[in-house]
Design a protein that fits this description.
1 helix, four-stranded antiparallel β-sheet, single chain, mainly beta
């Protein structure tokens, strides 16, 4: 009945501290928080499923400040719970409460005080990113109704792109590269590549060949690797041309490191693949134990370790070899 942020020793798996944040968020896809914490120096920021945002001391877990941003900015908790990872930029902490006039807000990261608020879209499940286009710093976010870009300093709306929204669950993080941003959603919608200017954008392509549901594609070189709903797909970033498709380990999530793709199917099958635009090349696979719900947390790689998380278990593997 309670949500927590907790720290674990990477070598032993021993819990170092845990801090209660708010009551547990309950849902038919599994209970608890959805978003990954964000670290910044000696502080940690995390969003709970009901919109409670906490700032903690990373060494001890002590609460520095907390507020429920959904209540504060008169948003509403979206169907599967608030799911974003907070964005830190300098003194700013940027999150999406989804309130009228406060779709996106910038808070002072030291005390949570409002710096600016903007937009009227309901919240999405995606996390915002920061880009610099011709010296103009912009926040790009995927809300529940559109992709949008706002001025980092003021929150002024620069452009809005509703075509990519499916109005059910917009989840994948935008991918920025070389003046372009890639956006993708499922529920029959598709993907788009937008060419960005300092204060505008233009559509390069829109197709239905990469429909990211709950996982974000990865970009390696000029190739996007991601899930078109249930099918692992390789796509040329600049043209949207499909290079190959494979059922692989089943519908899931993936991460890229050292010219390899690490994939985790929602049924607990993990796979190691070559990041090859020419063809699907699987190196190996294995299976983790899991409970009744699908595994939707993406793999994480840090300091030669691979972390796989399903609903109730966290696994750590040495992949330095």
């Amino acid at each position: 009945n309670q949500e927590f942020v907790f720290a674990i020793d990477v070598k032993t798996g021993k819990k170092l501290w845990e801090t209660a944040t708010t009551r547990s968020y309950s849902n038919d896809r599994g209970n608890g928080p959805r978003g990954t914490p964000t670290t910044d120096g000696d502080r940690l920021y995390a969003m709970a499923g009901d919109g409670t945002l906490v700032c903690l001391d990373m060494a001890t877990g002590k609460v520095i400040w907390t507020q429920n941003v959904v209540q504060q900015y008169r948003g509403s908790v979206i169907g599967w719970g608030m799911s974003e990872s907070p964005l830190i930029d300098g003194e700013r902490l940027i999150v999406m409460p989804g309130g009228r006039g406060a779709s996106l807000v910038s808070l002072n990261k030291h005390d949570g005080k409002l710096q600016w608020k903007t937009g009227n879209d309901e919240a999405g499940y995606s996390s915002a990113i920061l880009v610099d286009i011709g010296g103009v710093r912009q926040i790009i976010a995927l809300s529940g109704e559109s992709a949008m870009s706002v001025m980092e300093e003021t929150g002024e709306l620069l452009w809005r792109y509703p075509k990519i929204s499916n109005r059910t669950a917009n989840i994948a993080t935008p991918i920025y590269h070389d003046g372009f941003v890639f956006l993708s959603t499922d529920y029959g919608t598709g993907c788009a590549l937008l060419k960005l200017g300092p204060r505008m954008m233009s559509e390069v392509y829109f197709n239905r060949d990469m429909k990211n549901h709950y996982s974000t594609s990865v970009l390696a070189g000029d190739t996007l690797y991601g899930y078109n709903d249930t099918i692992l797909t390789a796509m040329d970033f600049k043209t949207g041309k499909v290079l190959w498709k494979n059922r692989s380990v089943g519908k899931g999530s993936l991460i890229y490191a050292d010219s390899r793709l690490y994939v985790l199917g929602e049924d607990g099958v993990a796979g190691l693949l070559e990041a090859a635009p020419s063809a699907y090349k699987e190196v190996s696979r294995f299976e983790i134990s899991k409970d009744q719900y699908p595994s939707w947390s993406p793999p994480v790689i840090s300091d030669g370790r691979l972390y796989l998380r399903e609903q109730d278990n966290l696994f750590s593997y040495d992949i330095k070899k």
